[in-house]
Specification:
flat; 12 helices; mainly alpha; 62% helix
C-alpha cells in the first residue's frame, strides 16, 4: 500500500500535458499517415488494372461494342415491321383513294393548262412555224379567257353606294367647307335702329348745307 500510494496520488491530480508537446505531435502525425494509407489502400491495390480511360464510355472498344449491340437491338426491334410493311394491300376502289385522286386532279397544273397538240415535223418549215405561232396564240387566249371574263367586274358606276360613300366622306373631311372664314359672311344691319336713323339725318342735313 505504501509502495503504490504515490502513484495513486498522482492519478488523482490528473495529467498536465500541452498540445504542442512532442509526443502528441508525433502521435498526430502517425495517426494521419495511418489514416491516409488506409484511405488509399484500395487505390494502391488497383493500380495497374485500369483500362486506360476515365470511364467505360471513353474506351473506344467498349463504345464500339455498345454501338454494335444497339444497332443489333434496333434491327431486331424493327424486323417485324420490315417483314409486314410490304404485305399491306389497299383496294383500288377505296373511298380515301378515290378522294385523293379527285383532289390531285383538281390541284394538278397539267389538267389546268390544256396544251394543244404539238406536231413532230421539221422545225424550220414555214408552215410549221406559222402553225406553231397560231397554236401559241390560241393557247394563250384559252389560258387567259378567265382573266378576260373577270376584267371590268371591279368597275364602280357613278351613283353607286361606294362612290356616294366616298363623296360623303370627302365632304366631311373637307376643311374648307367645315371652317368658314368670318370675312366671307354677308352681314346686314337693321335699317330702323337709332344710330342708323341719326346717321341718315345727319347726312341729309350736311347735304342741304
Amino acid at each position: 500500500k505504501l509502495y503504490v500510494q504515490a502513484w495513486e496520488e498522482a492519478k488523482k491530480k490528473g495529467y498536465d500535458m500541452r498540445a504542442d508537446a512532442i509526443p502528441i505531435q508525433s502521435a498526430k502525425a502517425s495517426r494521419d499517415i495511418a489514416s491516409d494509407y488506409k484511405y488509399k489502400q484500395t487505390h494502391e491495390k488497383e493500380k495497374g488494372h485500369y483500362i486506360g480511360c476515365p470511364s467505360a464510355k471513353d474506351d473506344p472498344k467498349l463504345a464500339l461494342a455498345a454501338r454494335a449491340m444497339a444497332l443489333q437491338n434496333d434491327r431486331l426491334y424493327k424486323k417485324g415491321y420490315h417483314d409486314s410493311k410490304t404485305q399491306i394491300h389497299i383496294p383500288v376502289d377505296a373511298l380515301s383513294v378515290q378522294a385523293a385522286k379527285e383532289c390531285q386532279t383538281l390541284v394538278s397544273d397539267i389538267d389546268y393548262r390544256q396544251y394543244l397538240h404539238q406536231w413532230t415535223c421539221l422545225p424550220d418549215q414555214n408552215d410549221v412555224i406559222h402553225a406553231r405561232q397560231a397554236y401559241d396564240l390560241q393557247s394563250d387566249n384559252v389560258y387567259k379567257s378567265d382573266l378576260e371574263w373577270l376584267r371590268g367586274i371591279g368597275w364602280l358606276t357613278e351613283g353607286s353606294v361606294e362612290v356616294v360613300k366616298a363623296k360623303k366622306a370627302q365632304e366631311l373631311l373637307n376643311d374648307r367647307l367645315y371652317r368658314t372664314r368670318p370675312e366671307q359672311l354677308q352681314f346686314t344691319s337693321i335699317t330702323d335702329s337709332p344710330d342708323i336713323v341719326l346717321a341718315k339725318t345727319n347726312a341729309m342735313q350736311l347735304s342741304d348745307v
